[in-house]
Amino acid sequence: MIPAPPESGPPPVMPEPPAVPTVTLEPLKKVRTEKVQKRANPKTVAAEVPALVAVTPAPAVAAEPAAVPATTAPTVEPKPVEPPVPPKPLLKDGTYSGWGTSRHGDIQATVVIENGRIASAYIAQCLTRYSCSWIAGIVPQVVQRQSAEVDYVSGATQSTNAFYYAVLEALSKAK
Q1: What are residue 91's phi and psi, to 5 degrees?
Q2: Which of 14, 52, 63, 108 is 20 to 30 A (C-alpha) from 115?
Q3: For 79-93, what is the mean pLDDT?
Q4: Which DSSP helix (H) or strand (E) runs through 96?
């Protein structure tokens, strides 16, 4: 015959978990070593090595955490955030031209400024003895870099300098 389960009553009490030991390390002590010509005796070596690990039992942990009283933090109204002031444009909007010279001739560059930034740049006139197609690749760099600082073109250094100074003069008029 199988015994009947007990009627409803108090729930069974769970035993506390066993305490977990904590491990603490002690500083390593310097062991004196001597020149030994014969094999070391394991019994004497074990006696010279200090105990490195000490085991201590952990304190018992409370079964139930202490109740924390509920408190409400005072409400603080956030300060209104002011939108950042946009920086004043360094350049005045408009279309500006400038001339640059070299020993091979002159170049006129035109720069268009919109919203304080360089929107476009182009060579308006090329009066050099060489074709300005040699330096056409550096014209978009003015817009990309937002400055007259462009790369030099090998074989067209003088024309590059003339274009640089033409853009520099145009930008100086836009200030």
Answers
A1: -120, 140
A2: 108
A3: 78
A4: strand 94-102
**Is 72 within the bounds of a domain?**
no
Does residue 25 belong to any structural domain of this protein? Answer: no
Which residue type does 150 have? V
Per-residue DSSP letter, 154: T
Domain span including residue 114 = 94-173
Six token digits for residue 66 = 């202490």
Query: How many structural domains is the chain composed of?
Result: 1
Task: Tell whether 31 is covered by a domain.
Answer: no
Evaluate whether residue 143 is within a structural domain.
Answer: yes
pLDDT band of residue 75 (cuts 50, 70, 90) is confident
Could you report the per-residue pLDDT of 108-163, keeping only the tens digit for each?
A: 999 999 999 999 999 999 999 999 999 999 999 999 999 999 999 999 999 999 99
The answer to whether 100 and 161 are in contact (CB under 8 A) is yes
CATH number (domain holding residue 138): 3.90.1010.20
DSSP code of 166? H
pTM, whole model, 2 decimals? 0.52
